[in-house]
Write a structure and sequence with these properties.
Elements: H1 10-13, E1 19-30, E2 37-48, E3 52-56, H2 63-71, E4 78-83, E5 86-87, H3 93-103, E6 104-107, H4 119-129, H5 136-145, H6 161-173, E7 179-183, H7 191-206, E8 211-215, H8 219-222, E9 227-232, E10 235-241, H9 245-258
Parallel strand pairs: 3-8, 3-9, 6-7, 7-8
Antiparallel strand pairs: 1-2, 1-4, 4-5, 9-10
Helix pairs in contact: 4-6, 5-6, 6-7
Bound molecules: adenosine-5'-diphosphate and magnesium ion.
């Protein structure tokens, strides 16, 4: 049974759908006429609730576009996206914003923290924007879980990159989203900080039943996921379950062979 807290809306209290994310023939083209780039070309996929999926592929293959379209940060030209059983495509801007705030968390490579706010203030920002009650004990719990329980009053410029990214993860998790999207979350971090971040994302899935989708170019980072989706030229180009870093690297090398340069 999912506990429905006082003041929480029914959509959040309701039992999560078995399919956390579904894309049906999603396409996205940037630019017009001879400059048009088909960043996503008819991508269909389904991710089960409580899974950790890595998305990999050559630079420019459409990974970030896929994530942005799936997270409602960008709109596909055609196709359908559903998150936690509810369609994200189709509504107006206000509906999309509400949808994102209620169901989606996002972690960016460059953290995207507000420099003038403290760790605690950055963390609760999504709750405040959604007009939700801020439970101080819950905020402390989330920040303690990412190892920052003693840094609540610090500002981003007083933190290391790894600590900033852990604040960003706390911010993504505090609203208890159904799906967390992370675009190269370890891309700017040293090996040890990267491992901390990957452990937290994996824990969000294994311990708390979240669904995480992470873009990465690092086979070691991808090996933390339950499966890897490969993209090439805006299309799905395979899937690897229970990935090892070696198997991922090998598949990536073949992917590069299969897509001739300059095409
Ligand atoms: P990846 O994350 O795999 O490197 P992207 O999804 O960022 O790839 O980009 C896919 C393709 O779409 C690339 O050719 C890129 O140049 C193009 N693209 C992405 N965003 C935009 C944009 N806002 N305007 C124009 N072209 C874009
Ligand atoms: Mg990208």
């Amino acid at each position: 049974m999912t506990m429905v807290r006082a003041g929480s809306r029914r959509t959040r209290g309701a039992e999560p759908a078995a399919q956390a994310l579904r894309l049906v023939k999603v396409s996205r083209t940037y630019g017009a006429a001879e400059n048009a780039v088909r960043a996503l070309d008819g991508v269909s996929l389904t991710l089960e609730r409580g899974t950790f999926t890595a998305v990999m592929g050559p630079s420019g293959s459409g990974k970030s576009t896929l994530l942005r379209c799936a997270a409602g940060l960008d709109r596909p030209d055609s196709g359908i996206v559903t998150v936690d059983g509810a369609e994200l495509t189709g509504g107006g801007e206000a509906a999309l914003t509400r949808f994102r705030r209620e169901r989606i968390g996002f972690v960016f490579q460059q953290y995207n923290l507000l420099e003038t706010l403290t760790v605690a203030q950055n963390t609760v920002l999504p709750l405040r924007l959604a007009g939700r009650r801020v439970d101080r004990a819950r905020v402390l719990q989330v920040l303690t879980a990412v190892g920052l329980g003693d840094r609540l009053g610090h500002r981003p410029d007083q933190l290391s990159g790894g600590q900033c990214q852990r604040v960003a993860i706390a911010r993504a998790l505090v609203a208890e989203p159904r799906v967390v999207f992370a675009d190269e979350p370890t891309g700017a971090l040293d090996t040890r900080s990267a491992r901390d971040v990957l452990r937290l994302l994996q824990e969000a899935v294994r311990v708390h039943g979240r669904t995480v989708v992470m873009v990465t170019h690092d086979p070691v980072a991808a090996s933390w996921a339950d499966s890897v989706l490969f993209l090439a030229d805006g299309r799905l180009a395979g899937r690897l379950h229970a990935p090892t870093a070696d198997a991922v690297a090998e598949r990536l090398a073949h992917l590069a062979d299969a897509v001739p340069a300059g095409v």
